[in-house]
Amino acid sequence: MDTIWKQRRHFAQQTRYSDSIGRQRHSQADTVACNGE
After folding, report:
1. How far is the C-alpha of 4 from the C-alpha of 9, rounded, in Å?
2. Region Disordered: start and end of each range (predicted)?
3. pTM to 2 decimals?
4. CA 29 – CA 9 distance, rounded (Å)
5. Tens of pLDDT, residues 1-37
6. Cα distance between residue 35 and residue 3, in whole Å
């Protein structure tokens, strides 16, 4: 039972991490697009 909870917590942390990276990349792409035009 303990390993399942650890895996779930690890998965949640990874999802949150990739979400924040996706947001950073998106905002960076927006900034580059605004500067380029």
Report:
1. 9
2. 1-37
3. 0.39
4. 30
5. 678 888 888 888 888 888 887 788 777 777 776 666 5
6. 48
Q: In this structure, what token pair is assigned to residue 14?
A: 């990874």
Three-state secondary structure string covering the chain: CHHHHHHHHHHHHHHHHHHHHHHHHHHHHHHHHHHHC
Question: Which residue type is seen at 31?
Answer: T
Kindly state the tokens that stand for 5. 């909870």
pLDDT of residue 8: 87
Q: What CA–CA distance (Å, rounded) separates 1 from 23?
A: 34
